[in-house]
Design a protein that fits this description.
Elements (H helix, E strand, L loop, with lengths): L2 E6 L4 H12 L6 E7 L4 E7 L2 H11 L5 E7 L14 E2 L5 E9 L2 H10 L9 H13 L5 H9 L4 E9 L2 E10 L4 E4 L4 E4 L11 E4 L4 E5 L4 E5 L4 E2 L4 E2 L15 H7 L1 H9 L3 E2 L4 E2 L8 H5 L3 E6 L1 H17 L4 E5 H4 L10 E7 L5 H12 L3 E6 L5 H5 L2 E4 L12 H20 L4 H22 L2 H8 L7 E6 L4 H15 L2 E6 L16 E6 L5 H12 L4 E7 L11 E5 L7 H19 L18
Helix pairs in contact: 1-2, 3-4, 4-5, 7-13, 7-14, 9-13, 9-16, 13-14, 13-18, 14-18, 15-18, 16-18
Length: 610
């Protein structure tokens, strides 16, 4: 979840690395640093805080070098300060390393190195690894072999880039459980933890896989595994465009991404709706449709917002495909010895395709023989490459840490998978076409909700000082309540809880008073009357009520303090609409509190550590 950038070529690496770090700051923003090597000197500059603080220091130092590595950190081991910031280095300051991941056996390695006479300046696991590499270099091994030998002693996850004054014409990079991509240029090459840092310079990339080590020079590269076996890698072309990574005139990436949802969900279904067949065609699942439809059980595993999407998927698949579904936190799934059968299908959902817990759970499921499918956003990501088959959600880059458009695109894909299975089983052509018609109408309905942005902003003004929030929904909208609460606490730091509305009286109702806002997701669906009863219970206790309701529902107006009316759609698709006002509400409350909604404290976009 940290950002890694490296450059080797004929240009000054500093502005190139700095620009790359700015693009990766959504992955970590506790501290930042850069190390460079040229023919006469080695230099390292690092500091606590954001990349802008590093940039100010670099403007004073005027570094110029053709080789360098840079890092923006999300702290795991040790507080975010200058000492713990990357790059880390050896005593002679001629060996530098940046690292994403966690070295689990770092204490054992640290004890071993102390016995060899090494001293440690930081609290990090990263410093242990760079000094371990140094211990092998002292045995007159090459930089490549020193890294390889060191990694054979390491337990844990890593994405690293290493440079040395002793071999100033190369970068050594390696990965296990943490993404790294090589950028191939003309007389220059790059390394990064995310392709977005490279696309200004090259569209030709090579993705490293687990246990692979790359030696990168300005003109060439080669890859081996940690057992020293050579590996042939294919150069791929990326389609990401630079303007997709800008704010496009919006004050924040989060607002831009909320507003992009008519387009992002259109992209999630483009070319996939088959009206003549009343079904869907998902290219990434071709050849697996029958096995999927004949699954005895489907397990969906994910983390965070993707887990909430999985819960909606559970409702969809069980209702229309008549297959039992279990939803699992990926972080728990891999450790609880899950019972998995060969006729199970396991869907893994991840926006980044790099979520460490989800990736580890996927590998465990593959080992046990289930059909393993991925749903992710990032082409070429680890989950996309590890899964047997899968579906891209095509949401486009999501830079804001709090996921918005990826969530609705995940729901779109889950709805299409549901329809694919249901039509293979018992759903009629007429019902299938009805779902397709509503899917196609969703972008226009989302536009109507987004036109209420200023209205939702006015509602937000009344809740800036709230200390707690309760989000309540039933059926398909219970997971939306969870997601709405998550969005609010992620970016506004207001404590919020999502609950099934009927469960409120089994505990949370004790919290209701005139100071407790309650958000009810109350579209006019099959359980509307039940939700109205729950609203009455909160109203009787003087709670402040915000309702997400359906257009032309005038009965609800007299029961709530604030009401946001949205278009009607099928119950199965309603979460795609009901979540959008909640995204905007959280956004405006956080902005009015003066907070950085794109980079909320303690959070990073891609969680590549456990």
């Amino acid at each position: 979840m940290c950002g890694i950038v490296g450059y080797i070529g004929n240009k000054n690496c500093v502005p190139i690395i700095l620009e790359g770090l700015k693009r990766l700051e959504y992955r970590g923003y506790d501290s930042a640093g850069i190390a460079t090597i040229n023919s006469v000197s080695t230099d390292v500059v690092k500091c606590e805080g954001k990349v802008s603080a590093l940039e100010a220091m670099l403007n004073l130092n005027k570094l110029d070098a053709p080789l360098g590595i840079g890092h923006t950190r999300w702290a795991t081991h040790g507080a975010p300060n200058e000492i713990n910031a990357h790059p880390h280095f050896n005593e002679n300051k001629d060996l530098f390393m940046i690292h994403n991941g966690i070295i689990e056996n770092y204490q054992v390695l640290k004890t071993k190195l102390k016995k060899q006479g090494y001293n440690f300046a930081s609290e990090t696991d990263t410093e242990v690894l760079v000094l371990l590499i140094d211990s092998f270099m002292k045995k007159n091994l090459s930089l490549f072999d020193s890294v390889r030998y060191a990694l054979n002693e390491v337990e844990g996850a890593y994405g690293i880039a290493v440079i040395s004054k002793k071999e100033p014409d190369k970068i050594i990079a390696a990965r296990k459980g943490s993404p790294l991509v090589i950028g191939i240029g003309e007389n220059e090459n790059f390394i990064s933890s995310d392709v977005s840092a490279l696309i200004q310079h090259t569209k030709r990339v090579v993705y490293l896989d687990d246990n692979e080590i790359c030696e990168l020079t300005k003109d060439n590269f080669f890859v081996k595994n940690i057992s020293d076996e050579s590996i042939k890698k294919e150069i791929e072309n990326v389609t990401l465009e630079l303007d997709e990574l800008s704010k496009g005139g919006y004050p924040h990436f989060m607002l831009k991404e909320i507003m992009e949802q008519p387009d992002s969900i259109t992209n999630a279904m483009r070319g996939r709706l088959l009206f003549k067949e009343g079904s869907t065609k998902l290219g990434g699942l071709q050849g697996y449709e029958d096995r999927l439809a004949n699954s005895k059980r489907i397990i969906i595993s994910a983390c965070g917002t993707s887990w909430h999407a999985a819960l909606v998927g559970e409702y969809m698949i069980e209702q229309f495909a008549q297959i039992p579904v279990e939803v699992e936190y990926a972080s728990e799934f891999r450790y609880r010895s899950p019972i998995i059968y060969s006729d199970d299908t396991i869907l893994f959902i991840s926006q980044s395709g790099e979520t460490a817990d989800t990736l580890a759970a996927m590998k465990e499921a593959k080992r046990k023989g289930a059909l393993v499918l991925g749903i992710c956003n990032v082409v070429g990501s680890s989950i996309a490459r590890e899964s047997e088959a899968g579906v891209y959600i095509h949401a486009g880059p999501e830079i804001g840490v709090a996921s918005t458009k990826a969530f609705t695109s995940q729901l779109m894909v889950l709805a299409q998978i549901t329809l694919l299975i249901a039509r293979k089983k018992s759903m009629s052509f007429v019902d299938g076409k009805k779902v397709l018609t509503e899917l196609e109408a969703l972008p226009g309905k989302i536009k109507k909700i987004l036109e209420m942005n200023s209205e939702i902003e006015k509602i937000a003004e009344h809740f800036v000082d709230a200390k707690n929030f309760l989000y309540l929904g039933r059926g398909y909208n219970f997971p939306v309540a969870l997601e709405g609460a998550l969005k609010l606490k992620e970016i506004s730091y207001i404590h919020a809880e999502g609950y099934p509305a009927a469960e409120m009286k089994h505990g949370p109702i004790a919290l209701i008073d005139e100071n407790m806002p309650a958000v009810f997701i109350a579209p006019h669906d099959s359980i509307y009357d039940k939700v109205i009863s729950n609203i009455q219970e909160v109203r009787a206790r003087k709670g402040r009520i915000i309702a997400i309701a359906t257009e032309n529902d005038y009965d609800i107006d007299g029961l709530v303090d604030y009401c946001i009316k949205i278009p009607h759609t099928l119950e199965i698709l309603m979460p795609i609409l009901t979540v959008i006002p909640l995204q905007l509400l959280a956004y405006h409350i956080a902005v009015k509190k003066g907070l950085n909604v794109d980079q909320p404290r303690n959070l990073a976009k891609s969680v590549t550590v456990e």
